[in-house]
Amino acid sequence: xxxxxxxxxxEILIVITLMGILFGLSYSLELKQDxxxxxxxxxxxxxxxxxxxxxxxxxxxxxxxxxxxxxxxxENKIPYYFYIKQNGKKIIKKKGYYSAELILYKTLKFKLxxxxxxxxxxxxxxxxxxxxxxxxxxANPDANKYSVTVNQLGRVRVEK
Length: 160
Fold this sequence. Notes:
CATH superfamily: minor pseudopilin epsh domain
Strand content: 35-45%
Organism: Halanaerobium praevalens (strain ATCC 33744 / DSM 2228 / GSL)
Transmembrane segments: 6-25
Keywords: Membrane, Transmembrane, Transmembrane helix
Protein name: Prepilin-type N-terminal cleavage/methylation domain-containing protein
Pfam families: N_methyl
């Protein structure tokens, strides 16, 4: 009797194919999550550019405030908005949201925002700004952080 041990070529190809499919699915899921974070950050960057232009057009300072907590516990989104100060009152000019599944960081060193909101970025009527950086990332400690930086000249730059 001739006993041979090992796997056939078909068995090996099936296992390799299944491993490739599983790896591809997990990788595409991670890319999809990163893409969602990037899209939300691009939306915030577009709103920051809008605020810079409106500050010049309206001859007003536009202040950016982004929260770390939900407005309504039933929703899965966290607000941010732009406002101006007029006669001692805050007048909201534009409001947006980002996913509550994301964590907000500040500064170039990605410090976690621990207060209720972060309010540092401000656009002046001369198109200059009190610049700053905000970053968003999934709650996973190994997740990529995507940031928007506003420099003193008011330029808005997205970094991945």
